[in-house]
User: Fold this.
Amino acid sequence: MLINQSNMNKICQMTQKQLILKNQHINNNLQFIIYENMTESKKIEYQNHLDQSFENSQNQEYSNNLMFQRQENQDNLDGLEQSETQNQINEETTTNQSFLCQEDNLIHQKINPNILKNIIKSFFNFLMQQKNQDIIIELIPNKPYKQIMKNIIKYKKQFKYNNQYLVRLLQSKKYSKIFEYYITFDILDWINSSKLKQLAMHLQCIDFLKQCCVDKKQLQAIGFYTKKS
Assistant:
């Protein structure tokens, strides 16, 4: 598969908003294509996952609204006794800690270690395929192909499949751009050719990685989770 200079320029010039919209469009098409080719049992599993995700989203929205309402109530408690005010603060602290715990759990779901390992391994396989030589040369310029492959093999051997190395990959000047290209344009080939378990979670992780490529602030959440684990 070849990438011409025009496409390369479009990738480099794409604004953050455009890339987010493009990723969302690609991800929606990708999920539709895969869903249509699922067995009935997998369709049921996927629908259950969507229902659970919607329920989690509703619960989180309710929790956020509840926290906002409590904060408004707190602003009206200035005339109460000191002990009542302190009790309210303690309750808010407990709620915030619970919310942070829920946020950590959501991040953990998106970057499930086994699913992350599957995706990164597929990326390395993409790098090692001779048919992708032209793409690799364009996205990792200024070095001969043999030297690039030598560096990739070394990088692959040293790579550890955890959050810390994921952050390094997404921040890498050498490999982050080609990783972004892979999960945006080429990963569909791997998904269609693989018998993946937990397909919905793979798609969720891929979408989250796309967001990290566009918005590097997402990496702070990954790093925060890594330090606590």
